Amino acid sequence: MIDRRQNKRQLAMVFGLTTAYMLAEVVGGVLTRSLALLADAGHMLTDAGALGLALFAIRYAERPANLQKTFGYYRAEVLAALANAVVLLLISIYILYEAWQRVRRPPEVMGGPMLVIAAVGLVVNFVGMRLLARSSGGSLNIKAAYMEVLSDTLGSLGVIIAAIIIKTKGWYLADPLFGAGIGLFIIPRTWRMLRETAHILMEGAPANINIEAVKEAMLQVPSVVTVHDLHIWTLTSQVNSMSGHVSIDDPRQSGAVLASLSKMLEQQFGISHTTIQIEDRQCRPSWGEF
Question: Angle 35-61/140-169 helices, nearest 10 degrees?
Fold first, then answer.
């Protein structure tokens, strides 16, 4: 299961690092008159906002369920991941647009200060990535935040290489070309995250659960005759729910069958919230075979 307390602590640390570096980048951009650094500071501002949104979502999701929100506020994390993915996709598109503009009219960039500030940013972003890497595979919300920091890390690395080329060769086209490469790297990964969050919001079956396998496992439980109206969906990362109808051959065993099914579904498939209606074998499916 997800350790939300640890995720919240890690997000808070990365949010602090990102915000501090963003402010340093603004100061550096003003002092060096570097448009590239000021533009990257704007990117960092968006990322800081996205990390703040992810942190807020975790805290919001901790609120208890009530009569109006009977499932609680778990979906806040999925909505935050969706919002972050949309913002990151728009940023990537803007990077490509800005790169095209700069290819047409390459601006002069101060390579030395640009290199120093980008090197500091690389260290800050690498630390942020390390903090979020362990939890990014188990939470869509943390994964979205991780992608934000990854884009910043790649941005810092690209700026460093571009700064070295500019400083040694005087080739100002390096700046927009590296920026375009970063944008092209991020877009397909962000698109996959958008599809994943949309799948959850559409109540799609979890990708790691085979509904046919679930049905077959339920039919193996003693006294179970048929399984129908089976629905499996995700509330938030690693929190799966299921509802279904089960007909049994002996109504007196309904309690034992229900307990066996719930235990089996959680142990074998990680489905932590189950709603199962026990019926006799005369009942017919109301939603088709599943």
Answer: 170
Please give the single-letter amino acid code of residue 284.
R
Whether 34 and 113 have beta carbons less than 8 Å apart is answered as yes
How would you classify the pairing of strands 239-248 and 271-280? parallel
* Interval 151-206: pLDDT, tens: 777 777 777 887 888 888 888 777 777 777 777 777 887 788 788 888 888 888 88
Strand partners, 247: 226, 279
Burial of 223 from C-beta contacts in 10 A (0-12 / 13-18 / 19+): middle
To the question of pTM greater than 0.90 for the whole model, the response is no
Kindly report, residue by residue over 123-142, the tens digit of the pLDDT. 888 888 887 776 655 566 67
User: What pLDDT, on a 0 to 100 scale, did the predictor assign at position 138?
Assistant: 56
132 vs 109: CA distance, rounded Å = 32
| Edge-to-edge strands, sheet with 239-248 | 224-236, 239-248, 271-280
- Distance of alpha carbon 248 from alpha carbon 222, whole angstroms: 9
